[in-house]
Amino acid sequence: MDFKPIKAKKIYEEIIEQIKVMITRGELNPGDKILPERELAEKLQVGRAAVREAYRALEAIGIIEIRPGEGTFVREMGSKPMTDIMSLAVITGKDTLFELLELRKIVEVEAAGLAALRRTEDHLGEMKRWLNLMKEEIDQGSLGDVPDTKFHYAITNAACNSLLTRTMNSISETIKQEMKTILTNMYRTPGTPQQLYEQHKRIFEEIASGNEMKARTAMFYHLDRAEKILKKEMTTFECKLP
């Protein structure tokens, strides 16, 4: 029998868990105002510091929004039904996030293969534009994360499949909204932006050459490496929380 050690949760983690459960059950909805720190601390019979840390963590991962002078609110998740469902799924736990990343592999690897077969010169020009901008930003010390995302959109568009494009939009928007802090940490890891640029360049070259299988392989390698980095950074982010 494989038993795992039981880890005692900190008070702020218990508060986070309760708020997440209330959101998934529909007891708290996007736009709803949450109790102020003092009131929630009294209700839960805990110190205000624990509530403050819980709110800080929830805000960092995009679940709540603290508006100075107004209060604390459950963050609006977006207007598209697909995005709303995925956003709600993400806040239920990190395992769901990695399921989304697995889905991204499925979608984008195939998109890269189709793009190699169907891309036009205009599609290649769009990809090249974002690739060049990514390198330019990285060379200037910036993250290059925005042209990175745009590059992936351009590849999906080059696949010429509207459902692939819609699926990609839903996944990318969710990751951007819910994991903004962690993604920023990922791109700030020394050497990571340069590595990601080289991987993007390889993907572009294979698509431009029309090599369907190599385009798929290059995309899979890139997403697999990015997932490993994200997992590492997520662990670091969790450890940094008080």
Automatic annotation (TrEMBL):
Pfam family for this entry, one: FCD
InterPro entries: GntR_C, TF_FadR/GntR_C, Tscrpt_reg_HTH_GntR, WH-like_DNA-bd_sf, WH_DNA-bd_sf
Annotated signal peptide: none
Residue stretches making up the HTH gntR-type domain: 9-77
A Gene Ontology molecular function term of the record: DNA-binding transcription factor activity
Matches recorded under Gene3D superfamilies: GntR ligand-binding domain-like, Winged helix-like DNA-binding domain superfamily/Winged helix DNA-binding domain
SMART domains with a match to the protein in the record: FCD (SM00895), HTH_GNTR (SM00345)
Matching PROSITE patterns: HTH_GNTR
Keywords on record: DNA-binding, Transcription, Transcription regulation
Highest taxon listed in the record's lineage: Bacteria
Name of the molecule in the record: GntR domain protein
UniProt source species: Desulforamulus ruminis (strain ATCC 23193 / DSM 2154 / NCIMB 8452 / DL) (Desulfotomaculum ruminis)
